[in-house]
Design goal:
Shape: globular
CATH architecture of the largest domain: 3-Layer(aba) Sandwich
Helix content: 25-40%
Strand content: 15-25%
CATH superfamily of the largest domain: NAD(P)-binding Rossmann-like Domain
Number of helices: 13
Number of strands: 19
Bound molecules: nicotinamide-adenine-dinucleotide
Distance between the termini: 67 Å
CATH class of the largest domain: Alpha Beta
């Protein structure tokens, strides 16, 4: 049986390991699979969870959990910190992270390179390396490949296969299908690497060739991912610009956008929102300029993308500042409940969530805060647990931030004379009308007139 090793067991790696472990031909499993985590506090915590046979905390998708539980029963899920497991791997999926240093304005390439060093010092002849990490375009070609080559040559090994194949998984309730049913992209400089990578991806995801896009270079796959996420980030920033204008001039932006969506060519225009969060959209657009300055030796400044990222970075703070000047003393020294704190709906992923900025904002106004989010449960940012459903009725301010599906059937028992903010279109028309009609509440709805 061929052996697959997965490096990094975060959102991407855990799913990749599970899909590889579950790949079958007829009744027979196809690969011997093991995941490798970093020997760090975080890495060991992940391993403890996986090896305890409990469901990993990051998963809240029932389809994935069913798949995962069956594999646990069949003893197919294995994870370790032992880097010797790379030695006899036939294929390695690199799912470790490449982060961005927001202070130095640089991609943290050195850290990522270390992950590749570890692999290339261990692997055997003819190993296939598929890099799934989102990277500044050019990284695989200009840095990764030379390192692999150098380290293999030192050990007298000549053959290896290398490609970049980015990931599109979405944390949350679509975790399983956002991985299984999507088009795959492979960027590789040589036909053999491409052939091997295609075979594995076809086996693992049971996809046909027409669902695989091939590029002649890893850089094109890397670029594809960065454009995809920069496009989304830029669209969000564009709407934020108009939100500010409409808010200042008391116009109903959402009504205007609804009208624009009637044009077929414009039907996916974004709506306003509280901010951009998550691990990807916050950093990926910045990899464009990082590529140019750190890898290509060029001076492409990507002014539009950079400006969009800047707008997005300030968005939550700008919205909260508007609220501050509108509500003045009414929001100082109050009891505040944040409703939903993940970075998007139906996930427990809170990385770079706008809720952090909202929390800090009210904290500075000497407010006492709690949060209600049964999907998240424990929020690392404030080291605390969500308040219980029975304890929602005694707040001065309610801030709706995330539209989890499970909130649809919950009627928050707002206290009389409280203020209600809906900063992410989380309330349906009925709930919204009720608030607006009531003489007991003051309210603010993002993207609306808010007289
Ligand atoms: N999360 C998403 O929704 C998503 C979607 C598409 C693409 N991506 C990209 O995929 C990559 C991984 O994302 P993620 O969300 O899984 O990140 P993550 O931070 O959750 O997981 C990465 C894991 O790699 C581990 N790691 C780091 N160095 C290692 C090493 N030397 N050996 C073994 N393990 C190591 C870390 O401890 C961490 O647990 C990133 O490049 C990200 O941009 C993420």
């Amino acid at each position: 049986m061929k052996k697959i090793v997965i490096q990094g067991l975060g959102y991407v790696g855990l799913a990749m390991m599970t899909f590889c472990a579950g790949a079958k031909k007829g009744n027979k499993y196809l690969y011997d699979v093991i995941g490798i985590e970093k020997n760090s506090y975080k890495g060991r915590k992940i391993l403890k969870k996986i090896n305890s046979k409990n469901n990993p905390r990051i998963v809240d998708d029932i389809n994935f959990l069913k798949f995962y539980s069956k594999l646990i029963k069949d003893k197919r899920i294995k994870a370790t910190t032992d880097i010797n497991e790379y030695s006899d791997a036939d294929a390695i999926f690199v799912c470790s992270n490449c982060d961005y240093n927001f202070v130095k304005n640089q991609a943290k390439l050195k850290d990522f390179v270390k992950n590749i060093e570890i692999i290339s010092k261990k692997i055997k002849d003819n190993c296939l390396i598929i890099i799934q990490t989102t990277l500044p375009p050019g990284t695989t070609d200009k840095i990764i490949e030379p390192i692999i080559k150098k380290n293999l040559e030192k050990r007298g090994i000549q053959n290896y296969y290398l490609c970049h194949s980015f990931e599109r998984i979405t944390p949350g309730k679509d975790y399983y299908f956002s991985m299984k049913e999507v088009q795959r992209v492979i960027g590789s400089k040589n036909k053999k690497s491409l052939k091997h990578a295609k075979r594995i991806l076809k086996n693992v995801f049971k996809i046909r060739s027409n669902k695989i896009v091939e590029f002649d270079t890893p850089t094109e796959s890397e670029t594809c991912k960065i454009i995809e996420n920069s496009y989304r980030a830029t669209n969000i920033a564009f709407i934020e610009e108009w939100r500010k204008f409409c808010s200042k001039n008391q116009m109903d932006l959402e009504k205007i956008l609804k009208c624009i969506r009637q044009r077929k060519t414009h039907n996916n225009i974004m709506r306003s929102g509280i901010g951009v969060g998550g691990y990807c959209l916050t950093k990926d657009p910045l990899f464009a300029k990082a590529s140019s300055s750190q890898l290509m030796g060029e001076k492409f400044n990507f002014p539009l993308t950079i400006k969009a990222t800047e707008v997005n970075q300030n968005m939550t703070f700008d919205i909260m500042s508007e609220i501050r000047s509108k509500f003045k003393m009414k929001i100082i020294d109050k009891k505040v409940l944040l409703i939903g704190v993940s970075y998007r709906e139906d996930t427990n992923d809170t990385r770079y969530s706008p809720a952090e900025t909202v929390f800090d904002f009210f904290k500075k106004l000497r407010c006492k805060l709690n949060f209600y989010d049964p999907v998240v449960g424990y929020w690392d940012y404030i080291n605390n647990y969500s308040v219980n459903k029975k304890n929602l009725n005694n707040y001065d301010i309610y801030v709706h931030l995330v539209k989890h599906q499970l909130f649809n059937n919950i009627n928050i028992p707002y206290k009389k004379n409280s203020i209600i903010f809906d900063l992410n279109h989380t309330l349906n028309i009925k709930k919204r009308e009720k608030i607006l009609k009531s003489k007991y509440y003051e309210s603010y709805f993002i993207g609306s007139k808010n007289k």
